Structures are given as structure tokens and as C-alpha cells.
């Protein structure tokens, strides 16, 4: 093979083969990793209540720039900071955040 292609071609083909093997390894690792995006990243984020709790204990809150229907174990007040604990379809379970612990919508 060395006589037919020359030494430069062998090095080029070897380098191309190495690049393809590394690309395949990276692609396999990326495919195995768990996708984390969309609503899956909501738990841990903080938001602000835009509508106080009603008689059923539901309220609305601004989380990640979107208005969500939320519920909590305690009544929520307008302007109160909340942290998302879980996501159930289009509703979020939240808990009040102490005023000193607000982190601008980022997960804690």
C-alpha cells in the first residue's frame, strides 16, 4: 500500500480515520446522555407570583419569562417569590422562597 499511495497519503488516511473514530465516540457519548431541556429544567428555578392564590389554592407565577399556573401547600400572595419543586403537566408545584434567598430565576 505504501508503494501505491505514497507516505503522505498513508498519513492523511490515518489522520482521517482517527478523526472519524473520535467523531463516532463523541456522537455515541452525546446520544447516551440524558436530554435536559424544556420543562425538565424548571425544578429549582425561582419565579414571582403574578396572581394570588384562589379558593382552590391555585395561582399564577412568572417563571423563566413565562406565566405558569402554580399551586403550593400554603396560600401565595401577589409579588411573592417562589421556587419550583415539581412539574405536573402544565402546572408547577412551588414553595415560597424566603426574601433573602431569591436567585433571579436560576436553579439553586
TrEMBL record:
Where does the source fall among the domains of life?
Bacteria
Chain ranges passing through the membrane: 12-30
Name the InterPro entries for this protein: NA-bd_OB-fold, NfeD-like_C
Give the residues annotated as coiled coil: none
Q: Which keywords does this chain's UniProt record carry?
A: Membrane, Transmembrane, Transmembrane helix
Every NfeD-like C-terminal domain range: 40-96
What protein is this chain from? NfeD-like C-terminal domain-containing protein
This chain's source organism reads Castellaniella ginsengisoli
